[in-house]
Amino acid sequence: MSSSRSNSSANSKTEPSKPEAKSKSKPKPKSKSKSKSKPASTPSARSTTSKSKSSSKSSSNSKNEASSTTAGAKTDIDAKIGRRTKRVAHGATGVHKKAAEDKGSKDPDLRQSEGAPSKSPPKVGSRAPEFSLRADDGSEVRLADLRGQRVVLYFYPKDMTPGCTQEACAFRDAHSEFQRVDTVVLGVSRDTTLKHQRFREKENLPFRLLSDPEADVIRRYGSWGPKKFMGRSFDGILRTTVVIGPDGTVERHYPKVSPKEHARQVLADIEGTQNVQ
Fold first, then answer.
1. Selected residue with higher pLDDT from 75 and 162
2. Are 254 and 266 in contact (CB under 8 A)?
């Protein structure tokens, strides 16, 4: 009995206890996903992206509009240059000719008036051509109504131009002296009565201005003919003056007039005529 216990004790000493085997578990391989998940976009991110796209589109549209505007402006400039070149090629004469043929031109001397060609100036001692023209004040002036008075009928190209203004002011300054010798002063041009009115008010002219838009009376008094201006020739009003006596006959004709000195010359001649009579 004791021997068996000793044997078992010896056996237990000689046979060390085996440690328990630890179970090693292999880690599971991670499954690789073919599609990578994108992070969820937040509202602010979507808004930023949308604004970026809108800004890019707006910038593109602006560039296109700018390009279109530039192209349009270039086309307009090219067209203007082309027209200008064409005018230069045809010469300034063509432009003035077109203006001269336009009856609505603002410059009366550049309008080509219809009607008979200008007659020769009335001869001294002959009967002065009758006329009836509208004045700047709206009245109708008839030569027949002026019988018994001497009439100075001066023809001039255009209101408010340097030479015509100088001539009108010279007659204005001597007007009281013309009245003293019982002489009526009348200016005649193709300007409208409205323009005559403005001219008369501006220069404080004491005598009436008559409108002859079709140059009928101007032609009958031989005051229409060829002129030269800035290297071109055209027909227009000639600066002339006719003095008509109280009996309706032509006393004097002035085919060439110096605007500044003319009024005094006419006055002196009238005074000389009266002294002779």
1. 162
2. yes
Q: For residue 254, which amino acid is it?
A: Y
Greatest alpha-carbon pair distance for the chain in Å reads: 202
Q: In which residue are the tokens 């086309």 written?
A: 75
Torsion sign (Cα): 157, 162, 167, 173: positive
Domains along the chain? 108-276 (3.40.30.10)
Q: Which helix (H) or strand (E) holds 152?
A: strand 150-155
| Gap between the Cα atoms of 86 and 84, Å rounded | 5
Each residue's pLDDT tens digit, 151-161: 999 999 999 99
- Asked about 169 being catalytic, the answer comes back as no
Q: Are strands 150-155 and 140-142 parallel, antiparallel or unpaired?
A: unpaired
Q: Residues 164, 210, 238, 270: which is the catalytic one?
A: 164
What value does the mean pLDDT of the chain take?
Answer: 75
For residues 164-182, average pLDDT: 98
pTM of the prediction?
A: 0.60
The rounded distance, in Å, linking the Cα atoms of 267 and 254 is 13
Q: Which residue has the higher pLDDT, 221 or 110?
A: 221
Q: In this structure, what token pair is assigned to residue 247?
A: 């009996």
